[in-house]
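Below is a complete specimen:
___
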Amino acid sequence: MDTDQLLAFQRVVRQGSFSRAARTLDIGQPAVSARIQALEAQLGGPLLTRGRRLGLTALGASFLPFVERALETLDEGVKSARLSQSHHRGRVTLAVLGSLAGGLLGPVLVQFLATHPEVECSMRSVDHEFVLQLLADGVVELGIIAWPCRDAAARELTSLLVLRERVVLAAHPRHPIARRAGISVTELIDGLRRHATALAG
């Protein structure tokens, strides 16, 4: 079973005749008939009803969707290979912190793929240490991590873009901090330190 046989079967069904199928394939009608017969021999039965009107047998009707799918897949593969050969197809692999995957990167990827459908994207949502490991091992090319990063694995990394995100401090309504109009980072750290000391004592 080869592509020429599948294509001949598909064209005969679409065109409704062997002669019209032969013209679209730019081959002779005997060649189309030979391909269909070879296909039928491999499947063990007739695919088409011959007579005044060409039609599909039960075997042909059940086989046709798979033929269509196989030819479409092969066509996509050829297009992909040609785009890759001409450097019009790319691949992006990245890892991102789980907390940023859905809210930040997800919508960005959707927009990117809408305008660059020829690019294959692969994203992994993992914790900070695993992002570093994936980058170090070359599994992904890009990563979004917390920065600055003092981890030894980050020494070989190059920072391409630094995103600044507001951090929201939430407190219970009855907590003393909730009654304040504002609090500095230094005050917050001192308060956390005092609270930790009090719990330890």
Q: What stands out?
A: The two ends are 80 Å apart (CA to CA). The mean pLDDT is 82. The chain has three domains: 3-85, 91-154, 166-201.
